[in-house]
Amino acid sequence: MNNSLLPVTSLDDLRIARAALDEPVGFVPTMGYLHAGHLSLVERARRECASVVVSIFVNPTQFAPTDDLDAYPRDLERDTRLLEEAGADLLWTPTPEVMYPPGFQTWVEVETLTRPLEGARRPGHFRGVTTVVTKLFNGVQPQRAYFGQKDAQQAAVIRRMVRDLNMPVEIVVCPIVRERDGLAMSSRNTYLDPDERQAATVLYRSLSAAKSAYEEGERNADTLRGIVAEIVNAEPLAKLQYVSCADYDTLEELKTVTGKTLLSMAVHIGTTRLIDNFVLE
Ligand code: PAF
Fold first, then answer.
1. Are residues 151 and 25 in the same domain?
2. What is the CATH number of the domain that holds 70?
3. Is 125 a catalytic residue?
4. Contacting residues for 163 by C-beta, under 8 A, at least 6 apart
5. How far is the centre of ligand 1, averaged over its atoms, from the C-alpha of 239 (Å)?
6. How far is the CA of 130 from the centre of ligand 1 (A)?
7. Ligand 1 atom showing the smallest separation from residue 148 Cα
8. Which domain holds residue 92?
9. Of 212, 184, 181, which is closest to residue 198 (Cα–Cα)?
10. Mutate which of 62, 162, 171 to test ligand 1's pocket (most atoms within 8 Å of Cβ)?
11. What percent of the chain has pLDDT over 90?
């Protein structure tokens, strides 16, 4: 366990600290305000790699212009302590100036895969993600990078980017970590009041019902989407934004489930937007 995790900020300091690390290096990129989901990525990297690097950077380019970036929750002191306990070796906390110097004009964009689902509702979001992840990879130069299955489209987009651009990093996608009642861990859960928090279990409940139907032999994608929609629509505090039953790799909507499938959804609970998914295999 590392008991003196001091965040480095500049690229020069990162490179000096990175050069001293044993290889292979595992990397967990985050936007901070860490929860058990993030820590499960750090713990997995700890088990599989000689060194673990974590970044914390609230990336402005993946937010909509209307989002209140300053309202995004931050607690670097607590995050640093949690990362020390989880055994991270190096914490990189770049500033916006390090990531987006004046005159910045180079972007990384994955095309078709970013159009449906989250991409359709959050224009520009994935361009911001793939650009910042490329920059984070270039800084850290990890052999492996760890992402959560919770952001399923993000994971698919990053796998594709790494493949398409021959990036020398292995992408490891780790299972969703859930609360006892099934709610997927997310920094956004802190925005829910007690009634909304209770209503938020509808994501897990509806996906579980569709998965049970799948396990009993249901293969019609519309029927599976319909099971999710019906349960969400019965929850007064929830408003379904989308439910998708799509190919796991291409994210194309299916008529019939045959191979590995992503059943995913976005729901508004009050003003909080939550996403969740199950993989059917
Ligand atoms: O998943 C996140 O927290 C962010 O999208 C990431 C990968 C750290 C890029 O900013």
1. yes
2. 3.40.50.620
3. no
4. none
5. 25
6. 9
7. 1
8. 11-174
9. 181
10. 62
11. 95
- Residue 246's Cα: distance from chain center in Å? 18
Per-residue confidence band for 264, with pLDDT thresholds at 50, 70 and 90: very high
Q: Whose CA is nearest to atom 1 of ligand 1?
A: 30
Q: Which atom of ligand 1 is nearest to the CA of 129?
A: 9
> SS3 for 27?
strand
Residue 73's contacts (CB-CB under 8 Å, 6 or more residues apart) are: 32, 33, 187, 190
Q: What is the CATH number of the domain that holds 236?
A: 3.30.1300.10
State the residue for tokens 């309202």. Answer: 71
What is the atom index within ligand 1 of the atom nearest the CA of 59?
A: 10
Instruction: Select which of 35, 38, 125, 268 is catalytic.
Output: 38
Torsions phi, psi of 3, nearest 5?
-100, 0
The answer to whether the beta carbons of residues 63 and 168 sit under 8 Å apart is no
Token pair listed for 150: 């919770």
pLDDT tens-place string over residues 170-219? 999 999 999 999 999 999 999 999 999 999 999 999 999 999 999 999 99
